[in-house]
Amino acid sequence: MDVRGLNALQIILASGFTKVTDLGDIPADVEHLASLPEPVSLVRADESVNFKLAAKVLDPVRSDTTIYPGLVRTIPGAVTAPDYFLVGSKPATFQLIKRVAPPENHPSLTFIRLPIKFVRSSSSKSGAPELWLSTVILHSEASVAQYVEKGTRVAACHVLPVATD
Question: Would you state the pLDDT for residue 8?
Answer without folding.
Answer: 46
